[in-house]
Design brief:
This protein is an alpha+beta fold and 170 residues long. 29% of the residues lie in helices and 18% in strands. It has 5 helices and 8 strands. Strand 4 and strand 5 form a beta hairpin. The longest helix is centred in the middle third of the chain and has 12 residues.
């Protein structure tokens, strides 16, 4: 599941960076008020969940709350925060994850999105490092260029005193 950057023989001994994997995210209809329990999903709204539970059982996967341990805790935390600062806090209890092998994610997302109580299902792309993985020769050029820079930057703090300028204005 996790992707790693392979080491070459001449690299220093450091651990491989494990790249995060893709993830199947399911967004429930807020009105359904789904509850993902052990083995099955129930809806507090009374919406039919038999098709959803059948698909999950057939595929050998489960819905897991994406934020927090349970939907109730996530809702309570959101309600507690909604009064602070006047900002509206979105209902994060409607977001779920489904853990499955990477090659099955698209098909599962398509099947889940068609079910009642599900607003959408999509595959979140894998995260990539903010800094590109540099090749050895590019890294070496950058390192040698850094060695050519002056060791100390001149100190210009003496010229930053604004007291005389401010005194002239008053």
């Amino acid at each position: 599941m996790a992707r790693t950057k392979a080491k070459t023989g001449d690299e220093p001994d450091r651990p491989d960076y494990v790249l995060p994997h893709r993830e199947l995210v399911v967004v429930a209809e807020p009105s359904a008020r789904l509850r993902a329990g052990r083995g099955e999903v129930q809806a507090a709204s009374g919406i039919e969940t038999a098709a959803l539970n059948a698909l999950l059982a057939e595929e050998g996967v489960a819905l897991e709350p994406l934020f927090g341990a349970s939907e109730e805790r996530t809702r309570a935390a959101g309600e507690a925060l909604s009064g602070i600062g006047g900002a509206e806090v979105p209902d994060l209890s409607i977001y779920y994850r489904v853990r499955a092998e990477d090659e099955r994610l698209e098909d599962l997302a398509e099947s889940l999105a068609k079910l009642p109580g599900i607003a959408q299902a999509y595959v979140k792309p894998a995260a990539e490092p903010a800094v590109p993985q540099l090749e050895d020769e590019v890294l070496e050029r950058r390192t040698s260029a850094a060695a050519d820079t002056p060791p100390v930057t001149p100190d210009f703090t003496a010229g930053q005193d604004l007291k005389p300028v401010l005194a002239e204005r008053h």
